[in-house]
Design brief:
By secondary structure, the protein is an all-alpha fold. It is built from five helices and no strands. Helix 1 packs across helix 5. The radius of gyration is 27 Å and the shape is elongated. The two termini are 28 Å apart.
């Protein structure tokens, strides 16, 4: 039971670490840029697909002159932000990795917790 409690505490700490990484300003800004470029790329592709679908049966030929992304290479912009995201460095990761140098930190945490309880019990007895 005590080991399960220790594991539960470690899982909570791991979730805090994951949240710290996901909510890092560098990560948040990079994800926002990737999302924006993906939307632009999807919009332009959808716009062009719609033009193709409409122009096929229509005698009148519609163009993309009104498209806001007409002369923009959205695929290259998207690739650039994805590459930047993949090379992203979050300074907090170095600190987190230093904390996780121990191979089996669940056992270490459980051992630390048990030692703390024993010391408290000894303090109460004396």
């Amino acid at each position: 039971m005590k080991e399960e409690e220790a594991r539960g505490a470690v899982v909570v700490k791991e979730l805090k670490v994951v949240n710290a990484i996901l909510e890092a300003p560098e990560n948040t800004a990079a994800v926002e840029k990737v999302t924006e470029r993906a939307r632009e790329t999807g919009f332009k592709a959808g716009y062009n697909q719609c033009l193709n679908d409409v122009n096929t049966p229509s005698p009148k030929h519609f163009t993309d002159e009104r498209c806001a992304l007409r002369d923009v290479d959205t695929e290259a912009a998207y690739s650039a932000v994805v590459e930047a995201y993949n090379g992203l460095i979050i300074p907090a990761l170095e600190q987190i990795e230093a904390c996780l140098e121990v191979d089996n930190y669940i056992s270490v945490y459980a051992g630390y917790s048990n030692r703390r309880k024993k010391m408290k019990a000894l303090a109460v007895e004396t």
